[in-house]
Amino acid sequence: xxxxxxxxxxxxxxxxxxxxxxxxxxxxxxxxxxxxxxxxxxxxxxxxxxxxxxxxxxxxxxxxxxxxxxxxxxxxxxxxxxxxxxxxxxxxxxxxxxxxxxxxxxxxxxxxxxxxxxxxxxxxxxxxxxxxxxxxxxxxxxxxxxxxxxx
Length: 151
Description:
Helix content: under 10%
Distance between the termini: 59 Å
Low-confidence stretches: 142-147
Strand order of the largest sheet: 6-5-4-7-8
Strand content: 25-35%
Number of domains: 2
Number of strands: 8
Mean pLDDT: 87
């Protein structure tokens, strides 16, 4: 007998509740500090640069590049076992901050550090909020191997 394990979701706090409402609509938001202009992700109660509490959530473009990534074969939670292997990446958002997310809908051998990505909100299979994941912007332009040096 196979039983399904519920997928852990985001934890909503007063500081993150508006973020999760936007995510439920498929929008990625970042915080911008009204005092120093710093942009940060994930939502929190103070600016990580100047400690100001003057923060606003703003819509992000949902674009960036892969800073680093790994292919997960052994998930940290049993709910993700059916999706293995999957790509977990640190995305450098065009607005500045980095966020952890998945890269989907592309063969693993096409994923490279520096590749451009865009947001692809994916409905949750368990009727939870959508998952804010990314896919390659132009998979055909992404090299599958680094160029060989002349010689």
